[in-house]
Amino acid sequence: MKIIKTNCNFEREPLKSPFGFKGGYLSELWQTSAYMQSQSGNEAIGFGTQSTLWSDASVFTSNTESAGNNMMFLMTSYALERTKQIDWDTPFDLLDNLLLDVYEYGKKITGNKNLRLTFALNSLVAVDNAAWLIYCKDIGIASFDEMIPQDIKPALKCKHDKLANIPLMSYNVPLDKIVEAVSQGYFFLKIKIGSDPDKDGNLDKMLEWDKNRLQEIHEAVKNIETPYTDNGHIPYYFDANGRYDSKDRLMRFLDYAKTIGALDRIILMEEPFSEEFQEDVSDIPARLVADESAHSDKDALAKIQQGFTAIALKPIAKTMSMSLKIAKLAHEQNVPCFCADLTVNPILVDWNKNFASRLPALPGMKVGILESNGHQNYINWEQMKNNHPMAGANWIEPKDGMFILDHDFYNQSGGIFKDIAKNV
Q1: Angle between the N-to-C axes of helices 203-221 and 175-183, in degrees from 0 to 180, rounded to the nearest 10
Q2: Mean pLDDT value across residues 212-237
Q3: What does the pLDDT look like over 90-112, one tens digit per residue?
Q4: Backbone φ and ψ of 200, nearest 5°
Q5: Which among 204, 217, 144, 209 is positioned nearest to 177, based on CA atoms?
Q6: Residue 254: CA atoms inside 13 Å, Cβ hemisphere, count?
Q7: Which pLDDT belongs to residue 424?
Q8: Contact present, 123 and 50 (Cβ < 8 Å)
């Protein structure tokens, strides 16, 4: 396949309030679009959402927020120019040809020789999505099921009729808002821990903050029942974003959870340690999840061998192509996966939803899950939904904390193949 014309653009979407994780705070997220035209005359537009704080916190903290976003957007633009110089058969081929080149370019413009590979992958989401769409047009594919390669289909063999919508409770979400969300049907809570309460990097203070956060949430929801888990309790999903420095410190958190009767409620513990942490973690009494450290299928295998027992897939943050590769590997290793969010726009939510709806349910769960927190965080969420090519479809908005996935959702593939007005 040959790409003969490209373009890209972005829009800055403000957030309702500072969005805290990894010890930092976002105020906006850039929405990117990538346009491609192939030699056959087909056109496609792919979308992305940038998160410099999530993909490489060092870039975020060493630059202004806008400067960090601009660096990532420059990488998207660079990648699109490179696509015109590459002949490729599938989007996997294109990503293989682009990734290291874009990564090295990113090192140069950020001045960061230790740039995380996820930063480059995040910059390539819009490009990769456009590549899948134009590839499907060129060979006559019109559904997500047809798009999945045969050797990856066993990893994506389910078709859930509902997905639990996981909201995100960042540092500054008050307890009453968490309780309110549960009362509205959101029973699977993702809770950010690893706060830096006094902005002095003190990990003892962080641990105490985390323990207090766990205690107040557990006290508030511990007696609420749900039919969607094996034990009937509200499950907790903690995301530490690499803030814990040792197994000992994490065990102090988990021991406290056991003391207050909350340990069996912790269904997932995501990225407690930094990427550089290499100790075996198979003895940790919680299901440890690899997210941003599982940049590629090779990295995911290393995390599994280290003792991680779940993978958070992010087609909307690490590209569809790489996520398909990781899902295949995890399936072969008998390691469960689920789809996490990046506070993406409504169109990308349905890219993620297509993936999540086909993954087996997590151990301990009776339904599939999908993290989606854009409605909590974007000022213009309602306006953004109107840009969805199937705005108003009944599977776009959760009902009582659930995305209801009917035949229309699967027949339409969530609307991702619908043409969108060219605006780049």
Answers
A1: 40
A2: 96
A3: 999 999 999 999 999 999 999 99
A4: -125, 5
A5: 217
A6: 22
A7: 41
A8: yes
- What pLDDT, on a 0 to 100 scale, did the predictor assign at position 422? 45
Distance, C-alpha 272 to centroid of its chain? 16
> SS3 of 180, please?
helix
Q: Give the 3-state secondary structure of 116-168.
A: CHHHHHHHCHHHHHHHHHHHHHHHCCCCHHHHCCCCCHHHHCCCCCEEEEECE
In the chain, where the domains are located: 3-142, 153-415
Pairing status of strand 368-371 against strand 310-313: unpaired
Question: Residue 26's beta-bridge partner residues?
Answer: 19
Token look-up 């709806």 returns 357
Q: How far is Cα 276 from Cα 410, in angstroms, rounded to an integer?
A: 40
Residues 6+ apart with CB under 8 A from 332: none
Fold for 3-142, please state it.
Enolase-like; domain 1 (3.30.390)
User: Rounded distance, CA 336 to CA 361, Å?
Assistant: 8
Q: Note the CATH architecture for domain 153-415.
A: Alpha-Beta Barrel (3.20)
Q: Residues 393, 408: contact at Cβ < 8 Å?
A: yes
Taking the CA atoms of residue 113, residue 114, residue 116 and residue 121 in that order, the dihedral angle to the nearest 10 degrees is 20
Residue 342, both tokens: 């990046």
Q: Which of 391, 350, 373, 404 is nearest to 161 (CA)?
A: 404
- Cβ contacts of 366 within 8 Å, gap of 6 or more: 227, 228, 229, 230
Element housing 368 (H / E) = strand 368-371
Condensed to tens digits (0 to 9), the pLDDT of residues 348-401 reads: 999 999 999 999 999 999 999 999 999 999 999 999 999 999 999 999 999 999
User: What residue spans of 357-406 are helical by DSSP H?
Assistant: 374-377, 381-385
Are 3-142 and 153-415 in the same CATH fold?
no
